[in-house]
Amino acid sequence: MKKRQRPHYGDHAALRPGASIRDAAAVLGISKTELAAWCKLAAIPEADFERHLAASLATDPKRTSARRIMSMHAGNPSRARDNKRRTFICCPHCGEVLTDATL
Fold it and tell me: Between 20 and 30 A from 31 (CA), which of 24, 64, 89, 97?
């Protein structure tokens, strides 16, 4: 029995309906994890995506990402950080963390 070969990068003709995630990732030249993230992002309704994108750009345009938009859509704003930065006050002698404050 011959071992099944994955399609090569750019071989779009090798993808048929019902192809596996691994085959699709191999053709696109990305990892399975990245392809799964793209699929989750594509599953967000357009109106929700636009709303989350606008909110993310308004709070911090430099940190807008697909992961942030997906976490906002999932209702998990803690992963989106909401402009919270952690400040550590360390001992000047040993470097041990003395306090941890969220600003």
Answer: 64
